[in-house]
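Design request, tokens follow.
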């Protein structure tokens, strides 16, 4: 799957259904029939939507962890807490489970944002706050993360 592109605003209804934006649905069309895994964000109060193939690739890495190490077991438990399989229905809607709506604090206005090979789903206010908070140190963060020439490809 190619990298996903775009940030979109949409609404969740009272049942937690979210209409996927048309542009994002088009990008996901090759993987729609395989379903998705939705889970809690690791670092932020958002949800992460993994196309099934991306989830399975990640789980292959996680499965290599030695489960006789407590830290690894604790990580696996926390990382997979609240994980659910979800599908996009014929109308292009995604039903977000109630426990995950509560975790992400989603009320009505939602931001759906591409994050390379997954999609983040945010409450709009929380997303804007996270972007504002990150903007303060983004130059330093960009330099630290992308400014190193570790592999010689000269990303800039």
């Amino acid at each position: 799957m190619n990298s996903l592109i775009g940030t979109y605003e949409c609404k969740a209804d009272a049942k937690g259904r979210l209409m996927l934006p048309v542009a994002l649905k088009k990008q996901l069309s090759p993987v729609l029939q395989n379903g998705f895994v939705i889970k809690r964000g690791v670092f932020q109060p958002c949800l992460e939507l993994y196309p099934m193939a991306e989830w399975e690739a990640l789980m292959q890495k996680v499965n290599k962890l030695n489960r006789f190490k407590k830290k690894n077991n604790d990580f696996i438990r926390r990382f997979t807490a609240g994980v659910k399989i979800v599908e996009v229905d014929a109308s292009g809607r995604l039903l977000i489970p109630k426990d995950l709506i509560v975790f992400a604090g989603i009320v009505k206005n939602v931001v759906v944002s591409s994050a390379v090979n997954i999609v983040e789903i945010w409450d709009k206010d929380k997303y804007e706050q996270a972007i504002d908070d990150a903007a303060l140190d983004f130059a330093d963060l960009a330099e630290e993360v992308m400014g190193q020439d570790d592999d010689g490809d000269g990303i800039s």
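Comment from the thread starter after seeing the answer: thanks! The first helix runs from residue 22 to 28.
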